Amino acid sequence: MRKKAQISLEFLIVFTIAIITMCFILPSASKAYNKSLKAIDLANAKLFASELQDSIRLIAQLSEGSQLTLKCSPFEDWKFSVGPENITILVNEYNIKINTAARVVSKETNFSLNQTSCLLLKREKEEIFLAINRC
Q1: Residue 90: its H or E element
Q2: Taking the chain (135 residues) in consecutive chunks of 10 residues, what is each chunk's mean pLDDT?
Q3: Which of 70, 94, 130, 133 could form a disulfide with 106 if both were Cys (CB 3.0 to 4.6 A apart)?
């Protein structure tokens, strides 16, 4: 009986040490995970900005009525600011500025995306209209 009690006590001690160790490791692992998610989101936004800039240049050369749809999938909020000559995307306090080759017009000059969305680019006259759709 004494041997079984000793094994149970040893198991409790090892289990308690394991739980205490995990309590110290989890917060730092969680911080590292959050930092990596923010870095991935920023890289995603930079890639999207490059695609958006290339698409604006392409549609500016196409005929009137041409359309292109771009899909973006942010993890957190992406804040857009649309001006006639540039578009700015704010991600995790980092500004990504896109210089447009053509005049870009949007119904909303400042908007935020926090879920998968589609941006529709449509060429009409000498302007490119930008519209937001959920996809």
Answers
A1: strand 86-91
A2: 66 86 83 89 94 92 90 92 91 91 88 92 90 85
A3: 130
